[in-house]
Amino acid sequence: MTVPDMLSGLIAPLNQQVFQLSQDAVTWSELLGFATGAVCVWLCVRASVWNFPVGIANNLFFLALFWSARLYADASLQVVYLLLAAHGWLLWLRGGERRSRRRVGHAPRSTLLVLLALLVPATWGLTVLLTRAHDVAPFWDALTTALSLAAQWLLNAKQIENWYFWIAADLVYIPLYFTKGLDLTGIVYVLFLAMCLTGLRSWRGELAAAGSATGAGDGTGAGGTGDSGGPGDTGATDRTVTA
Fold this sequence. Notes:
The chain is mainly alpha-helical.
């Protein structure tokens, strides 16, 4: 028995239909993916470390869903997410100063430039790979995969710029899932998009409040730097508030 056959057998119970929504035969994997995904994003908005264990459950449900829908990049991405979630969970708990909880902050400019530079070759390479694997939407699947990996990397580092990458990915995911008949998942991603916008505003508020508190505490005022680091220095992360 091949690995794909073994995987299909394992996820078969999750692919049993629960109800019909328009053209979408909603399965347990899609329904449970909806529930855990919504909770996971809500916890991210609140900058809660519990987003990681809930996210791991979400990865498993969406792995079953996307594999059955032949969205192979999305399915494989769930495995990568699971590993990244374990890394992010540890980083949020022990990635701050003296192994304390990590704080919300900005990504260094160099990190953003590297991630943006990698989007083009990553999308191109995945498109070629997925075309050969007979993926049903190779380019769009590749693009959202590259965007999502960049977003997850920034989320693991608890850096506010993760929201911009998630928003970009969601704007592609929404029409992709509706055109593939995954109506409930498309609705979920509309919700995700709204929650990402809320998360961006929430994290900006935390950073602004932390900056004001730091300025008041060290006498520099709102315009003070609080340390000698430049705008791209990772020290910006350490000056901000914890979740």
